[in-house]
């Protein structure tokens, strides 16, 4: 993996460990010579992951919509800042640039980005590893919900297993490096409708 996209919050949240792990992830990516692609902001966990990589001499590419740049949240110390016109264009560009995705703690935006990448993988539009760094159990309830979706027949087990999860950065990166995308695509069998 040459580049990993990280989705995360533009705020720090209530627990200091979120910021610490964001910085540690950025640092680890730099140390492993993996470039960071992220949302381009200098605030919250977004700024922390970028700073972690930059302080370890890593390369960081930010992708930021123009309307957010005008709010003066663009990180000015990045290796490269790519400006786009819309949130959708931002996600598309971040996907185009990366070899895998990690979600840190976040809100609606982080979940939306994560699930769009999972949906694209489920539909066979890419075969990249998609992962959650489950900092301090932040995503436990979501993981339980995904299991419920599988048990209720709304999500195939093979698709649920596309989401890699760990609370340890090195373990998560190892899982991503060894990931093999499922060969079963998503389809609807009209005979079963």
Automatic annotation (TrEMBL):
Keyword DNA repair recorded: no
EC number: 3.2.2.n1
Enzyme class (EC, first level): hydrolase
Keywords: Cytokinin biosynthesis, Hydrolase
A Pfam family matched in the record: Lysine_decarbox
InterPro entries: LOG, LOG_fam
Catalytically driven reaction(s): AMP + H2O = D-ribose 5-phosphate + adenine
Family recorded in the similarity comment: Belongs to the LOG family.
Record-linked PANTHER family: LOG FAMILY PROTEIN YJL055W
UniProt name for this protein: Cytokinin riboside 5'-monophosphate phosphoribohydrolase
Organism expressing this protein natively: Flavobacterium anhuiense
